[in-house]
Every structure is written in C-alpha cells, then in structure tokens.
Design goal:
mainly alpha
Length: 139
C-alpha cells in the first residue's frame, strides 16, 4: 500500500479522478448542481457531516452539562445549519440517479423514507452516461 492519496483512486478512469479532485467543498456542500457518485457521497460528504454532528453534540454536552436551559435551542440551530449542506449532497446524489432533488422529501415518511434514501443514495449506482443533470462522474 502506498502513501499516495491518489492511489485509492487508481481503479477509476482519469476523468473521474479529475472530477473528484475538481469538486471543492463549496461545490460539494453548497451547490445542488451536478452529480455525485457513491464514493463522494459516503467518503467526502456523509462521513465528514457525521463527524461534524458528533463533534458538535459532544461540545454541546460539555457546555451544557447538567443544565437544560438553552440546549434545545442551540441543537435546533445546529440542525438548521446542517440542513442546507445535507440537502445539497442529497440533491447531487439524486441527480446521479436521474431523479429530481424533490425526492429528498421522502425522508418525511417515517421509517420507510429513511430506508429508501439509504438504499437509493448509498448503495445503488447512478445512471450510466450523461443524463439531464450532467455527465457521469465515473465516465
């Protein structure tokens, strides 16, 4: 195993490696345009957001240990701050599946919505080739 970070991307075609390197964090978390493959979804988007949520939860627990005044307000504000980046990530992943970002609203359906999103966005491959939302990130 080499220490070169690009060696993990070696099985991917060179154009896909360029696309992964080209999408910066602003495009990743603050734009709904384009498509995102499963690798970007899990490694570059979901994992950092989970770690950020965990870090914020630990920080809030330390700051408000033993007190119950204000924790709900602060955690609600943090959830709202993470809502927009989450929607942007979901939108790009739905686009890769050739579906509208409105499919994110399926999360409002209890239990089934969450399972649907995990399976559809996390495990199913995107549309092969270009679609109405852009070129295939793995093409």
């Amino acid at each position: 195993m080499t220490d070169d970070p690009n060696s993990l991307l070696a099985p991917l075609p060179s154009s896909a490696r360029r696309e992964l390197n080209r999408m910066g964090w602003r495009q990743l978390f603050f734009s709904i345009k384009g498509r995102m493959g499963r690798y970007d979804y899990w490694v570059r988007a979901t994992l950092p957001m989970l770690l950020a949520s965990l870090g914020i939860a630990i920080l809030l627990a330390l700051l408000f240990a033993g007190r119950h005044d204000g924790t709900d307000t602060v955690s609600g504000m943090v959830s709202l701050l993470l809502l927009y980046p989450s929607v942007c990530v979901y939108a790009k992943r739905w686009h890769d599946r050739n579906k509208s970002a409105w499919w994110t609203l399926i999360l409002l359906v209890p239990v089934i919505g969450i399972l649907w999103v995990i399976i559809e966005l996390g495990f199913l491959r995107g549309t092969v080739g270009p679609n109405r939302f852009g070129p295939d990130p793995l093409d």
